[in-house]
Amino acid sequence: MTIVIDGRRIGYDDSGGRGTPLVLLHGFPLDRGVWDEQLPALSAARVIRVDLRGCGESEPSDGPALMEVLAGDVAGLLDALYVERAALVGHSIGGYVALAFFRMYAERVAGLALVASHVSADASNAPHADPAQRALAASRDDLADRLERENAMGAAVDSYLPRYLAPHAYRERPDLVERIRAVMQRQDPRGCAQLVRGMKERLDSHDLLADIDVPALVVAGTEDAYLKPATLRATADAIAGATFVALERVGHLPMFESPEATANALAAFAQRAR
């Protein structure tokens, strides 16, 4: 399903129903289909899934897809659906968008969940960042240029897929690896280039944590190559009343690697964020 927000096509789906909606925002370079396995556990809630610009059914951005611009797309969609307040769940870049949404529209946020996502600025603007984050940041400009030049998703797949899962998954679950590869390959290279550029420009969000006064959830994979569980635990500890969930033998893609546990965490969060 698509809708035009400020002249741009945005892909989404809405399960319908009453109550405070749960808005699910995917990671990079993925689309709203990554949440498929969580939907049954969330059947009691109204779930709205959104494709970020350049992913799924959403049109690419004309320039760097800043997190504030993507948050504006979410706000426009909620306006079109006559939704005043919603609980936001963001995976990876989706978490950056959720944080930008909270900064811009805090009164519209009924809950905030970060799934394998963090609150730091891009490591290119944070000299004391973790080495894994510094390496990721150092590759952004080249990756964005290659995606545009080659007009194919190969560079993004080669960069992200080998590190997105816990190490054992590559040995034990080759079917899952190929499933994720297929999701990555179907995205728009131009749109993903602009998402990469937008991620580089994101603001540090540590200053928001003390102001989050709604139900909050932070989900970490214990074998995430990009984000240390201790870092995400510290984020949860800085938010009053936040729940922290660490998933064993899980990397950067909890919704694929541990779908049931991820679904249960989100279902419990949805119950709180009413």
Describe the model.
The chain has 274 residues and is of the alpha/beta class. It has a single domain (2-272), classed as Rossmann fold. The chain is built from eleven helices and eight strands. It has helices at residues 67-80, 93-105, 131-138, 140-150, 154-164, 167-172, 174-185, 189-200, 229-237, 254-257, 259-272; strands spanning 2-5, 8-14, 22-25, 47-50, 86-91, 109-115, 216-221, 243-247. An eight-stranded mixed sheet has the order 1-2-4-3-5-6-7-8, with helices on both faces. Helix 4 (140-150) packs across helix 5 (154-164), helix 4 (140-150) packs antiparallel against helix 8 (189-200) and helix 5 runs antiparallel to helix 7 (174-185). 50% of the residues are buried.
Provide a concise account of the structure shown.
With 274 residues, the chain is α/β, with parallel strands linked by helices. 42% of the residues lie in helices and 16% in strands.
Key terms for this structure?
274 residues, alpha/beta, Rossmann fold, globular
Q: CATH homologous superfamily, by name?
A: Alpha/Beta hydrolase fold, catalytic domain
CATH architectural arrangement: 3-Layer(aba) Sandwich
Number of separate helices: 11
Kindly identify the CATH topology.
Rossmann fold
Characterize the largest beta sheet: strand count, sense, and whether it forms a barrel: 8 strands, mixed
Reading the helices and strands in chain order gives EEEEHEHEHHHHHHEHEHH
* Portion in helices: 40-55%
Shape: globular
* CATH C-level class: Alpha Beta
Count up the domains.
1
Instruction: Find the structural class using helix and strand composition.
Output: alpha/beta
β-strand amount: 15-25%
- The separation of the N and C termini measures 26 Å
Beta strand count: 8
Unreliably modeled segments: none
Give the strand order of the largest sheet, numbering strands 1, 2, ... along the chain: 1-2-4-3-5-6-7-8
CA radius of gyration: 17 Å
Average pLDDT taken over every residue: 95
